[in-house]
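Entry 14. Two folds queued back to back today. First construct below, sequence then structure tokens.
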Amino acid sequence: MVEIKTDQSLQAMREAGRVVAQGLTAVREAAGIGSSLRELDEVAHEVLRKAGASSPFLHYKPSFAPTPFPAVICASVNDAIVHGIPDDYRLADGDLVSIDFGAKLDGWAGDSAISFIVGTPRPADTKLVETAFAALDAGIAAATVGNRIGDIAHAIGKVCRSAGYGIPEGFGGHGIGRQMHEDPSVPNEGRPGRGMPLRHGMVLAIEPMLIGGGTDRYYEDRDGWTLRTVDGTRAAHAEHTVAITDDGPRILTQL
């Protein structure tokens, strides 16, 4: 069931989204050569504490997971696509890092992700990250009243495929509101004009995930959470929480 939010609820979600943006900004600023993923998780945790917000990631346990998630960020490095668990790994020059972060404030959730390169970038990684954000922008642009979920999926997939990248099968965006994951699902590839119509008050987490080697295949790490590319190529992830409104898409997870 898809919940249609009131304008007042959208404003409350904007405040939760602002905390998410603050957290991602703080993590990005703290991420440098020698920073540990666990230290970055603590940076994000401190943002939540100061805002009086909670984490929808911490202790989250979906049906596929063997254990509850132990952190407030997902930190996925290089060949990790999504759901990386922050540990004592210290970032090295040239690492490609994806950080996914959520916040819950006054009963409403926000969810967003960024990818960036630490230190000296490789041209191939720069292109991969830029394409992830271009795919996100295309998906957001298609998130308009009168369009359908398939229009968002098609816009994302067209950008990714045109650049020669893979899209991990079965993973994509989702509805969001009082819970981090709600209906509907938002695939990262699809046919235009298909799927649920978009209405004022729907809120979606739109999140392209790209595999640099061009294959759609991935495997699950031994931790039961992290998804990795099968060929060791790098991956990127970008995400915003977006409200569908009569005035056009409204990004809720930005400063």
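Second construct, same run, same settings:
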Amino acid sequence: MYTIKCENVREIAPMVTLKPVPHRPDFFAGFFNYRGTVVPVIDLCRLIHGCPCRMRLSTRIILADYAGKGNRTDTIGLIAERVTETVRKPKDAFVFSGSRAATAPYLGGIVMEQKKMIQYIDLNLLPNCIDFLPEEEDKL
């Protein structure tokens, strides 16, 4: 189980058909039109575990804001399974295991919730770890 800051979440959307794009990392699920804005979508299961999210009734696209280049706010879509509830925990409730994966520095501390471990995903670090998000507007 994973969590992100509630303040970053813009909306929880049902699964939609995504526009696939060739020559992208396998965790990149595609793009979709979110209220007139093209949003890149990451498959969190594929990114973290190496296998795609299963399509369930509770599989959703979490639309979240992150700090983009040049002090602008950008939006990313995150496909996640079993998106069924929100849990609020103070930042100091998350503890670090003492080890951090060099290839996944966006994975932060862990908190226990009803005998389940929930790991924090830092959306401010995630975009720097994946290299397909736009750095700035392309000029034609």
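Quick look at the second one. Strands lie at 2-3, 9-14, 28-34, 37-43, 60-67, 73-80, 107-113, 116-121. The radius of gyration is 15 Å.
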